[in-house]
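ok, trying the design again with the full structure, not the truncated one.
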């Protein structure tokens, strides 16, 4: 599977216009908090950088372009973007959330917003009967992450859109794992797309950010007001870095996927691996759904390692190219232990149900030589 050829042009040119005064090909870093007005309330489109900043505006145009949206909004983190989406809801609303969701998302919903009267129900969205059983008149939103984190289940976005429409609910899709290079949820009838731009869109492990994209003017205005009123916006410098990173998104994602395939196939045949989770493999139970709605399968691979917890730790410590760290989507390869790291906040019973145990490891496969990555894994297995 391949990236749409037009996407390469969109990533390079989206949101970028030569700066009119100097002709600079990149939007400058407008490192300013405020803007001079010619008269009270009369300005050149910018009055205060929490509301809008030229560097951030260029980024938001680029974010909209790559996700085939009409509107894009940048936030200071992925969780800040998620928080803004939930804040358009009222107390008493019900939100159905895919059960295998990023640990920070679940923590945000369970620990923060649940106490404000929003009912979050975590369900297996690969099972239509579970969705049907939870839908009700006060269901206001379905929250989908696909591929899921960390077991890489694939949720059918079009079916979730049908379920949402049946009760007048919104469909939100977290598109962080595939990135806009490999999946376009708005084309599959999603209402809102959210990203942790820290990950693949940023791609260099040097910034924290989030984004919300939509084709609805009404939803844009609601989330835009929250962005302005709450103020969780990225700085001009981080906006510049992220806009720069978007320009190489297509070429980076192609290499991430190529390497992930090689690593997944290697792990699938290794005697010390119990199970591999990668939607690009035909053995994946949701491969047919992934093939239908994705243009590629991205760079995330999870697997169960045979052995004790001490052996799992030894394996992670023996790697030299892969680094043991939180996060994902950077050019360098990372390994993560979800049970003790990214998903430690998930209730233990749910972790066990999802299979997030001591021997589950999650790889963010980078853009290095696939031969070097496989050699690194081979040496760690030997240890």
């Amino acid at each position: 599977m391949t990236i749409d050829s037009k996407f390469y042009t969109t990533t390079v040119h989206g949101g970028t216009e030569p700066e009119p005064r100097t002709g600079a090909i990149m939007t400058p870093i407008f490192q300013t908090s405020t803007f001079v007005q010619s008269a009270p309330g009369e300005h050149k489109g910018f009055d205060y950088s929490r509301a809008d900043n030229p560097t951030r505006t260029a980024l938001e145009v680029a974010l909209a372009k790559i996700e085939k949206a009409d509107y894009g909004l940048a936030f200071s983190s992925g969780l800040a973007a998620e928080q803004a989406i939930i804040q358009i809801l009222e107390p008493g609303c019900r939100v159905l959330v895919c059960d295998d969701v990023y640990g920070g998302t679940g923590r945000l919903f369970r620990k923060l917003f649940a106490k404000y009267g929003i009912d979050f129900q975590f369900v297996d969205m690969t099972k239509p009967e579970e969705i049907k059983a939870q839908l009700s008149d006060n269901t206001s939103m379905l929250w989908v992450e696909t591929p899921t984190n960390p077991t890489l289940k694939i949720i059918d976005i079009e079916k979730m859109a049908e379920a949402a429409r049946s009760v007048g609910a919104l469909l939100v899709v977290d598109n962080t794992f595939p990135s806009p290079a490999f999946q376009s949820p708005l084309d599959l009838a999603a209402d809102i797309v959210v990203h942790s731009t820290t990950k693949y869109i940023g791609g260099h492990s040097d910034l924290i950010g989030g984004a919300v994209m939509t084709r609805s003017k009404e939803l844009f205005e609601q989330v835009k007001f929250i962005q302005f009123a709450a103020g969780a916006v990225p700085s001009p410098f981080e906006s510049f870095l992220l806009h720069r990173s978007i320009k190489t998104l297509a070429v980076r994602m192609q290499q991430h996927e190529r390497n992930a395939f090689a690593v997944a196939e290697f792990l699938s045949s290794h005697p010390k691996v119990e199970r591999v989770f990668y939607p690009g493999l035909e053995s994946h139970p949701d491969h047919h759904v992934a093939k239908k709605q994705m243009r590629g399968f991205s760079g995330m691979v999870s697997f169960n390692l045979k052995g004790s917890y001490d052996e799992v730790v030894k394996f992670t410590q023996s790697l030299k190219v892969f680094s043991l760290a939180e996060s994902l989507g950077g050019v360098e390869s990372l390994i993560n232990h979800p049970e003790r790291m990214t998903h430690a906040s998930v209730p233990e019973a749910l972790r066990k149900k999802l299979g997030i145990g001591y021997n589950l490891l999650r790889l963010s496969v980078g853009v290095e030589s696939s031969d070097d990555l496989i050699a690194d894994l081979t040496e760690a297995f030997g240890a």
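Keeping the full-length input from now on. The radius of gyration is 21 Å.
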